[in-house]
Design a protein that fits this description.
Helices cover about 30% and strands about 20% of the residues. It is α+β, with helices and mostly antiparallel strands. It comes from Melia azedarach. This is Sister chromatid cohesion protein DCC1.
Length: about 400
């Protein structure tokens, strides 16, 4: 049994730093020995050490959440791991205190043996495990108050605290509430097609975005614009003259288009065929399921001239089902599903008890769990059956 006693000799970290191989050292209680709950050991991967030493990390989480540590680009959950071994914390040298005692920690004074002074016995340490960013909360926060054409004027005069209560959040508000690194948070905002308006990040109501898109398409017909080479300045200027805010006119190009050049002068944009076609498909199916023949007929009538709609564009957006002799189609978008695997698979198997791979794959291929492949997630959450080698595999809940 190891017994520690109060000692007046050398009692700092230098005693350990100068310890030779196969040698031993006495330990003693530090005068301030105690639980010191504010001191916790953190075990780090060497690649994270520069970020921690240069204070490029933050710890995020609300009082009811587990703490996570975030670098610029990754998120790590912090887990406490207990140890059965005794781990002693020895404080660094305090030269002001040592100056009163001339004992040499190197052991050159043969009448005084070096001593390690123990400040705390650590019961364990924190470990960092990389996780996917917890972006479900981001979607929940921004969905509280999507921007629409009926935006109430009262919001413009509210103070910051009141705006948060009304569901408006700045970048700093989101950083404080969402457990994700800055890079992951920006990617999450982009995936939600969010836009910063008057300092607050907003999701724009899809119907309102559709209205802006329709006006853009109308202007392109009137002015004989090519949908493959839209002049940004001209598009934004005309949309603003039609009553839309400049930021949302630009946002319409971001949501439905792709830049084709960024040279001198105005940028050129090309409307993305799939994104535009998916928008009109969602619009048609917003009223409920319909027979696929009727849907295809209406869909092809709505899309802009020169674009070609195909059912393959709607992977992860719709489900089809056979009812009697008829094939019906309905909206079921992967963007509406949670990002955590357990919740995702739970909802999928409530929707269908059995999934063929071709139908399931579009709804799980975006799952991101560090250290786990898609195959390992399937093994964990599903049961695979395949009657014959050439048959389509079928997945049911495990």
């Amino acid at each position: 049994m190891l017994v520690m006693e109060q000692h007046s000799g050398c009692r700092d970290a230098e005693a350990l730093l100068n310890l030779q191989l196969n040698s031993s050292i006495s330990i003693a209680y530090h005068p301030q020995f105690g639980p010191h709950d504010d001191l916790i050991l953190l075990e780090l991967d060497e690649k994270l050490l520069p970020d921690v030493l240069h204070q490029r990390v933050t710890i995020r989480g609300q009082v009811d959440e587990d703490a996570v540590l975030c670098t610029q680009s990754k998120t790590y959950v912090m887990k406490f791991v207990g140890t059965s071994n005794s781990v002693f914390l020895v404080p660094p040298s305090d030269h002001s205190a040592v100056s009163k005692n001339s004992n040499d920690c190197s052991g050159k004074d043969h009448n005084q043996q070096p001593i390690a002074s123990v400040l705390k016995v650590a019961p364990g340490n924190l470990e960092l495990v990389e996780i996917a960013p917890r972006l479900n909360k981001l979607k929940l926060l921004l969905s509280k108050n999507p921007y629409s054409s009926e935006e109430a004027l009262e919001f413009e005069d509210l103070e910051g605290v009141e705006k948060i209560k009304k569901g408006l959040f700045t970048w700093d508000d989101l950083v404080d509430r969402v457990q994700a690194s800055d890079d992951e948070l920006r990617h999450g905002l982009q995936a939600l097609s969010a836009v910063e308006l008057n300092g607050y990040w907003r999701i724009v109501n899809e119907r309102y975005m559709g209205t802006i898109l329709m006006m853009l398409l109308h202007n392109s017909l009137l002015n004989d614009w090519s949908l493959d080479a839209l002049n940004e300045d001209e598009v934004v200027s005309l949309l603003v003259s039609d009553g839309f805010p400049p930021k949302l006119a630009q946002h319409c190009l971001d949501v439905y288009g792709t830049k084709v050049n960024e040279g001198v002068g105005s940028c050129l944009w090309r409307l993305d065929e799939r994104r535009v076609c998916v928008h009109f498909a969602r619009e048609i199916l917003s009223t409920g399921k319909t027979k696929i023949e009727k849907f295809m007929e209406e869909w092809k009538r709505k899309i802009p001239e020169g674009m070609h709609a195909s059912i393959g564009m709607l992977e992860g957006e719709v489900l089809t089902e056979k009812v009697g002799a008829d094939l019906w189609i309905r909206a079921f978008s992967v963007s509406s599903l949670p990002s955590t695997p357990a919740e995702r698979f739970s909802i999928l198997f409530k929707e269908r008890q059995r999934w063929e791979w071709k139908d399931l794959q579009p709804y799980i291929r975006d799952l991101n769990v560090p250290g786990h492949s898609l195959e390992s997630l399937l093994l964990k959450y599903t049961r695979r059956t395949q009657p014959t080698l050439d048959a389509e595999p079928v997945f049911s809940t495990r």
